[in-house]
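2024-03-11 09:14:02 INFO receiving multi-entity request
2024-03-11 09:14:02 INFO entity count = two
2024-03-11 09:14:03 INFO echoing inputs for audit
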Amino acid sequence: MPTSATSNHPSRPEDLIGRLNSAHTPYEAKLKALRDLKNQIIGNRTKKLAFLKLGAVPSVVSILSSAAAAQGGGGDNREFYESVLIQSAAVIGSFACGLDAGVKAVLDAGAFPLLLSLISHLNEKVADAGARSLKLIYQSKRAPKYEFLQEKNMEFLLSLLNSKNENVTGLGANIITHSCQTTAEQQALSEAGVIKRLVGLLGGSINQKDASLESLAAMVKENPEVSAKFMGPENGRALNVVIELMKDKHPRTRLLACMCLISIRNTSTSYLQDSGIKNSLVSVLLELLDDPGPVGDEAPFVLSSLITEKEDMQKIAFNANLIEKLCEHLNAGSYQAKRLQGIFLLLGDLCSKLECCRDRVLDLQVLNFVTEALAHDSAEVRTAACNFLKNVSRSVKNLSAGQFMNEAVAVPLVRLLCDSSSSVQIAALGAISNIVVDFMAHKSVLVQCGGVKQLVQLSKSMESAIRVNAVWALRNLTFLVSYRCKEEILLELTSATLISLINDPEPSVQGQALALVRNLVDGTLNSINYVFGEDGAVLHAIARQLRSTSKVEVQIQGMYTLSNVASGNELHKEAVMNQLLPQAGNDAEKTLVKFLQSTDSRLCTATLWALINLTFPGSPGTCRRVTELRNAGIITQLKNMINDHCLDVKLRARMALGQLMIFGSVWTWYTSIKV
Amino acid sequence: MPVRVVEPSSPSQVAGTTQGNTLPQPCSLLSVGQAFSGTQNVSSLQKDEAWRVNVRIQGCDLDHGYLCGTMEALNVPMADTPVVTFWEGEIVDTKNYTFFTGKWGATAEDDIKHWTKFPSFSPLLSQVEVDGGKSLDLSNYPYIFMRWKEQYFVNVGTDCGLTIAGFYYVCFSCSDGSINGFYYDPNSSPFQKLELKSTNDGKSGFSFSSYELQ
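2024-03-11 09:21:47 INFO inference complete, emitting structure
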């Protein structure tokens, strides 16, 4: 009969767990089993998962718990129990290292408070093992949030930061990085003197430097007050120390120093604005992009926080050949999701404002990589690729050249409209909204690949962010689109959907829906008839919304829509007139005057164009409409506007008044003859 | 009740600064989607030789003094089809751009020579001669001065025998949407005149479409 217990070969997982769990296993054997387990799972994800499945974590936590209780009782076996504590803490830490499922199992098994209690252990090795294990747990987002605002917790944190043990101080810093999220927490930490302590750690070991830089970044992030404190005299030359750390020999330290400086920089327009530091940050981060490991994966995100929304920084990055570098990375072949996400994130940032960046990106044929990225397994990569497309297509010059509206771009984007992640759907809608502003008559590409059908579907989504973006895309698609394309769009959209979008509870959807109709009725006379189907139901809906809304953006779009309708024939003008000045009641009349009196020049202008179109010379009914408008008191209103501070309002008011006066004179003459 | 019309809107000098830093106000007739049509006299001497021209505004960014669009020349002698070009415009807003071109082979003298062809420029001349118009506030002036530079051919190749080497000095009237321009290219006949009017596709009124980039 074979004997397994004495074998020197690694135990089978089941046997190992059996030994850990068995009440009959002596503690010495359990200690050995813990060591075996630790050796088997270190750095081995597969093994970790296998042991997790077998319930190893609760077993180890249970041993940790009983060893803690037993050694508390004193006795001769103190040293032995401490070894058990050290080994079980190490095993727990190993399970939590780089594996979210491991962290979950550790937390579920109740290891966290046990590990915390080890920190205050008299034996430094035990405290160290507890701190190491907790540090690994705090690298995960799943780690429990630490409540700094409780006084006891703050005291404990300070005791960690004041410890002489490197892992314990590191743990303190990691807790801050993980849990410091609100302004109040940043403030509380700052007031408790944490900055000074962290600055002190900048002179410590690599681990301490890194942990300190990361937590300093978390403390100053978007908090000008804490940032000012860091920059204040009480922290001496702290800033210079961080700046120096940008040149550290360890890539991770360089990255974290940049992250910390960017956090400070982003809190005020007066910090770290000199060209020397700007260029240094860009060049250090650019170099770190080449790091093959996690530093290289994170560098794009740090660089993004430096350049996003900042045209001057984007220009510096452009001049430092960031686009070329990112292209080299793309050309080098497949990357893990995070790296690819970072690359497209940066390309998107660069193309958000500067035309030179968009041109360079297109010259270097980055679009060739987009199709694949749009179909990537990772939702984050798909979103980043969509955002990049959205930003690169902000170029009217390239839209005019028809650069984007082709099957390689449109087809995968349309496919993403059915994505399971709504943030991907919204990002895809953003990109589609821009690329459909195509001036090369390629808009039909989107219709042909089923894009309109999908957009119409999404315009009925329960999620308002999806609805507004879908209608936005349809609105841009209908801008200067051919009559045939309009027919296809409306066939899919239907008047009923259009009306429900005009009446949507969200004003942003209402505004986009009205802008869509405004584009639909622009162009040929036939187009105007779109709002006259079904007894003019769409026109009624527009007018009703105009009367009821208080949102100026909605009013502007609604008024331009009516104005476009009024640029048509007599029938069209009469219909608009009836909506603006109905026979019964005077609510609409008040609306017209109210709009002319608006403090928003754009609304005044839109209303004036409607009046200009209604009184356009040459139409048979113009004379009658002029009379009705005069009776409604419009002339007085217009006279108040002819010296308006806004040039457009002033000129349009004069134009409208001119038309009204011509016909007015004729009418006066006509009535005087009649008399 | 008659109201006195305050005439004319005149450019003012910006007090206490050396920079006229108020941008032109948006003008609905110069917004995206607006179309214009008219002619370009190819020779300043032979009035008969004129190409029919259509222009469409495609992009407008007043903050950056930027305008762009397409220009379609209809009866170009050497071309079988209408020739469409894409152009980008610099709005003389005295913040992003002054009346002095400073590139494209145009000297300050060339600039003055061309701008003075527009009657609406005369009230500005003396100041422009001093500083290119930097200290002028044109935000309420009913004319917008621009330079339009064609960037590429949209529908024909560069071998079409036509050139887009030059650029246009342009004056837009905010009142009626009319556009006058002069083509400048040291290698082409001087002062080719562009005359455009706002069009409405034969409808009885003005129509405005719009798009908004995200």
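2024-03-11 09:21:48 INFO post-check: Chain B touches chain A through 39 residues (CB under 8 Å).
2024-03-11 09:21:48 INFO post-check: The mean pLDDT of chain B is 87.
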